[in-house]
Amino acid sequence: MSLLKVDGVSKYFVTPGARERYCVFKDLRFSVFEKEYVTVLGHSGCGKSTILNIIAGIDSASEGYVYLDGRQIVGPGLDRMVVFQNFALMPWLSVWGNIRLAVKAAFPQATRQEINQRVEKYIDMVGLKGAEDKKPATLSGGMKQRVGLARAFSVKPRILLLDEPFAQIDALTRGSIQEELIKIWGTTGITVFMVTHDVDEAILLSDRIMLMTPGPYARIEEHIEVDIPRPRDRTTVIEHPSYYPIRNQIIRFLSDRAETRRELHLVA
After folding, report:
1. What pLDDT is stored for residue 176 in this prediction?
2. How far is residue 23's CA from residue 1's CA, in Å, rounded to a whole number?
3. Please, what is the angle between helix 112-125 and helix 141-154, to 10°?
4. In what side-by-side order are the strands of the sheet with 220-225?
5. How far apart are CA 152 and CA 89, in angstroms?
6. What's residue 259's pLDDT?
7. Which residue positions in the chain have pLDDT lower than 70?
8. Number of helices (H) and strands (E), helices first, in the chain?
9. By the 8 A CB rule, do 46 and 213 touch?
10. Using alpha carbons only, how large is the chain's radius of gyration in Å?
11. 220 pairs with which residues across the strands?
12. What's the pLDDT tens digit per position in 49-59?
């Protein structure tokens, strides 16, 4: 039985003065299973972040339903934690305070000692020991995203939602945090649903990649199983014989759909 089920979900937007609704995506149907790492990959504007926000409960579907553990999602909840590309930290709280706020909300019956132990555990896990008292304004982009990951994992959600979490981090830092994410995911076993436009990132991190066509009326068209054994790291993953066939399949898909969209615009 799937952990997450997206059943016939469509999203429309209405712009002022428009004669008809704009359909971002139509009739999306897919499942995510326990402890799976699934990535949605597609061009900008296809609705990747919108579907993630619908799963998170911070946006709503125009049509269809989303279920987690068999229950319909109708709003935000601590069973779904989101890590955003813009970090979304509380600027007036320290590293410790940002993580503690989430832990306290997720475990209201926990003692102060239990909360503090949990906060310390995840600060250590993301390599931020010594930075506990720093405010977000004094942190680098990589450190801010480490706080976001620690905060998300610390509440032990049923599913972790990653919205292009490395987009605003430089390439060298991105690689090290990706490797930390893989280790934490492997340790905790928390299910992950990520959206990205980075092909290499998707292959490195994912068990399965869902390819989304460009909008309007975007849809999930292909599912690719990433059969590269774990543990993976960015320096050796490219040596696996499946790496380039998977990468070429994705690039071909994205290139073909981009060309089709361009031709449709020229006809219009």
Report:
1. 86
2. 30
3. 130
4. 80-83, 159-163, 191-196, 37-41, 208-212, 220-225
5. 11
6. 66
7. 259-268
8. 7, 10
9. yes
10. 19
11. 212
12. 999 999 999 99
